[in-house]
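User: I've been trying to design a sequence by hand for this structure and keep getting stuck. Would you show me what you'd pick, starting by listing the structure so we're on the same page?

Assistant: Good idea, let's start from the same input. This is the structure you sent:
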């Protein structure tokens, strides 16, 4: 009875051990952009000598990298596989993500095993975009912006004025956020005029800087408003005077035109008709006398 029981245990034990095992020697891979990334995947089967190997990438959905002994279109020509280990050539930031190595051994009792590898592609700083206005008014608040959206890990920032680094001390009239890349002034003065630029940096590559831009601080808007109002008032006064002169000249011309027209249009009244029943000769003489 005892030997039979031991044989049963051995059989059951051997049956449960017939399964595929999958592992990775490096579950997290950090690699610089445009270099080769090696995603390791090792497997062991108990019986199946030709298991099916697949690689998948997890993003918004799950996409195939390697399936049916072929690479997907975006990986064709720039990836290779040795055993189950995947190598991607000249990686970019788009290649970052979670990859899953799946090995299916159909002849094993537990026929599926998997290992997960996270790839993080490191990107050196790029030239940041800098927002610096051309001019501002004295006494107004001001915020300058700097951003590098491509660097991995995220960049930190430093602002320069006339090639001198700005550090926010206790009595400085500005504040600097090195993580967000902002430079804030509570109230600018004429002394804040100058050439401003921003520099982004991280642990991957050399810092990059934007082109310096000129910031000019001019007089306050109240002075400008008074100047504009004065100029507008003067222009309105000149326009009013011109209108008055034109009206006066127009009226004088109209009166003169009326007199001239009246003189030209005067005609003497016609002579009276001859009286009835009078001597025609006497009438003619009278007419001659009148003339």
């Amino acid at each position: 009875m005892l030997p039979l029981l031991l044989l049963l245990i051995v059989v059951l034990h051997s049956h449960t051990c017939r399964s595929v095992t999958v592992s990775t020697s490096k579950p997290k891979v950090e690699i610089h952009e445009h270099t080769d990334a090696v995603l390791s995947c090792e497997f062991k089967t108990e019986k199946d000598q030709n298991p099916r190997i697949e690689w998948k990438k997890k993003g918004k959905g799950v996409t195939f990298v390697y399936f049916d002994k072929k690479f997907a279109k975006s990986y064709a020509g720039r990836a290779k596989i040795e055993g189950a280990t995947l190598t991607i050539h000249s990686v970019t930031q788009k290649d970052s993500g979670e990859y899953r190595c799946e090995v299916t051994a159909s002849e094993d009792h537990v026929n599926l095993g998997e290992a997960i590898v996270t790839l993080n592609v490191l990107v050196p700083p790029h030239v940041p975009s800098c927002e610096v206005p051309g001019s501002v008014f004295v006494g107004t608040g001001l915020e300058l912006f700097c951003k590098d959206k491509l660097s991995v890990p995220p960049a930190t920032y430093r602002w320069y004025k006339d090639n001198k680094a700005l550090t926010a001390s206790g009595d400085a009239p500005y504040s600097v956020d090195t993580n967000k890349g902002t430079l804030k002034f509570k109230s600018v003065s004429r002394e804040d005029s100058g050439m401003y630029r921003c520099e982004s940096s991280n642990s991957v590559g050399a810092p990059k800087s934007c082109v310096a831009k000129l910031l000019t601080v001019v007089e306050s808007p109240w002075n400008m408003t008074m100047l504009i109002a004065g100029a507008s008032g003067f222009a309105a006064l000149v326009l009013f005077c011109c209108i008055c002169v034109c009206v006066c000249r127009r009226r004088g011309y109209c009166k003169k035109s009326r007199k001239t027209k009246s003189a030209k249009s005067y005609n003497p009244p016609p002579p009276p008709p001859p009286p009835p029943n009078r001597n025609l000769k006497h009438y003619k003489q009278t007419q001659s006398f009148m003339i």
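That's my pick for every position. To get oriented when you compare it with your attempt: Helices lie at 2-16, 221-264, 280-290. Confidence is low (pLDDT under 50) at residues 1-16, 286-291.
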